[in-house]
Amino acid sequence: MHSILYGLTSALTWGAADFTGGIASKRTNVYGVVIGAEGFGMFLFLALAFLFRESVPSWETWLWGSAAGLSGGFGLLLLYRALSAGRMSVAAPVSAVIAAIIPVVVGAFLDGLPGVWTFAGILLALGAVWLIAHGEGGRETAAIRLNEITLPLIAGVVFGMYFVFMHQASREAIFWPIVASRLASMVGILGYALVTRQPWKPLRKNWLLIALSGILDASGNAFYVLGGQLGRLDVSAVLGSLYPGSTVLLAGLFLHERLNRLQLAGILAALTAIVLMTV
Does the pTM exceed 0.85? Predict the structure, then answer.
């Protein structure tokens, strides 16, 4: 029961982090948003690691945490680009569905095959992606929708890898794996921005929003780690993948985003699919 509670809490905080990060990405460059958010999260959990006197874990934990950080960081970069360029209520659910499928497959090898409801959820998830992409228009509208979900699809794959890597990293500790992931993510994205000569310094007026996004995202990671330590990888990951629920809700409340009927059905199907995977 506690693992389910932690998983749902990670979904709520991750969804809020994506909303604030998406808003910040609309106002300044996405590299600066992700680098700044990762930095705030790293320093927060570095302080918590010292405060609770958590033992420094083995080098394997640091490697898994770094791999998770690189996956999660570039996943955020892709997702925030999608959130800033398109509609949050479309990009977030698509990335979440794909991210949920990967740990389910890996969890089948690590913890045994899941039940029939999980397989039903996977099939429903694929149908949900098609509904969100197709919309109610003709071929031109469908093409636009497919272009709109390209980045979220790739982000979902990378996020799925993050779930797996972080689950492995968090076997010995809670705070240090998050510190390792944030450090690797921040350094990796900063290095990529410098090599490709991308603008990476965010506007000063957006720092508060970036800090909030970073703290929420790192907190979501902590709740995911706790859920994974108490339960199965696939259950913890798919519960965490419910994060689009809060993103869509916040986007509707503050941005007044509207969806057509098929896309709304697709989003509902996506969220239902993720729930089915946990049965």
Answer: no
